[in-house]
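Hi V.,

Quick status before I head out on leave. The structure for the redesign project is tokenized and pasted below; the design run finished overnight.
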């Protein structure tokens, strides 16, 4: 289970490098894949339109970290 999580995390980090190239629909799907619920996904997507690529990477990384804390709790 833990190895699978590590592999998934590595794939996501690799995917975060491409964040700046994402279109809104792709970002929405990425958030959906991260199991972010619908209202939060919409708000994050709306906020993302005002962010530069570095800020967007940090946002997705923060969402992932919050989820990891939730899983561990």
């Amino acid at each position: 289970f833990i190895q699978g999580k590590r592999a998934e995390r590595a794939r996501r980090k690799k995917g975060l490098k491409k964040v700046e190239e994402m279109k809104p629909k792709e970002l929405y799907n990425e958030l959906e894949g991260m199991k972010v619920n619908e209202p939060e996904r919409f708000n994050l997507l709306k906020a993302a339109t005002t962010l530069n690529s570095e800020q967007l990477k940090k946002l997705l990384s923060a969402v992932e970290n919050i989820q990891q804390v939730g899983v561990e709790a």
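Above is the designed sequence. The CA atoms of residues 12 and 61 lie 9 Å apart.

G. will cover questions while I'm gone.

Best,
W.
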